[in-house]
Amino acid sequence: MAIKRDGKVIKLSSRKGVVDTSDKRKMTIAMILATIIGLVLVFMPNAYKISINGEFVGAIKDKKVIEGAKNTVITQLQGIYNAEVKFEEELEIEKYRAKKKDYIDQNYLISCMRKKMDILIGLKEIFVEGESVGIVSSEKDVETLKAELKRKYYGDKAVKVDFDKKVEVRDIFAKEEDLISMDRLVQKCTTTTPKSITYTVQAGDSLSSIADRYNITMDSIVSANPGFTKNVVLRVGQVINANINEPLLPLKVVE
Fold first, then answer.
1. Which of 16, 32, 128, 163 is 20 to 30 A removed from 172 (C-alpha atoms)?
2. Residues 152 and 245 in one domain
3. Are residues 204 and 222 both part of a single domain?
């Protein structure tokens, strides 16, 4: 726009005080970009989500925490059982946006691994006549079982004993929770079944020694053999009857 003043033409700008349209567009774009970046930062994954069998455990920032926890669990179990240890499954891991309350430390992860994961340990399984009776930590537990059964069957008697059935010990990978306590193992092995047997008298046998052999009383032998008394004289080769309560794992006295 132009006006005349004192014979001179003066031009006035029509854009004075008005922001250029291109500048406004640039400002709008910058604000949109800033908003997008802000949203990305808010929702961008910042941690690893850990789950075991679909159950949320917690969040960690560095995967090295997992490897450290796993190695610690293996070392702990190897120290207890002196055996090979292996994980049957892996942790479920995915990146996500964690909250402050979600984070866990390595000790908590170790505890969760021990409680919730399938970790297999090289253990021993005891079989009696081919039937499994329990899983123990080592072959030393078999000798402990024999000592406990001797105490159960013979009390403080100074006798040497051995298993009176075929006992096998086989290697097995099993969970820590599969182990049987010694009390429970003794209970299973001493569970009895009524049984009638015959016995052929050997040289040196007496009514008392036969009763001790089967952990029964002399009276029970006498009652199972008509005409017997406690003072009966046994003959080598003589066949006698006995009613016994046979335990799942009996012992025998050895010379």
1. 163
2. yes
3. yes
Roughly how many angstroms between the first and final C-alpha of the chain, as a whole number?
132
Contact (Cβ atoms closer than 8 angstroms) between residue 242 and residue 221: yes
Dihedral sign (CA 243, 244, 248, 251): negative
Q: Does 212 map to a domain?
A: yes
Distance CA 159, CA 71 (A): 47
Domain that holds residue 83: 47-117
The radius of gyration computed from the CA coordinates of the chain, to the nearest angstrom, equals: 42
Kindly report the length of the chain: 255
Angle between helices 182-189 and 140-154 (to 10 degrees): 50
pLDDT, tens digit (0-9, with 9 covering 90-100), for 202-242: 998 999 889 887 878 999 999 999 989 988 889 999 999 99
pTM of the model: 0.70
Q: Point out the domain boundary residue: 66, 95, 117.
A: 117
CATH number at residue 212: 3.10.350.10
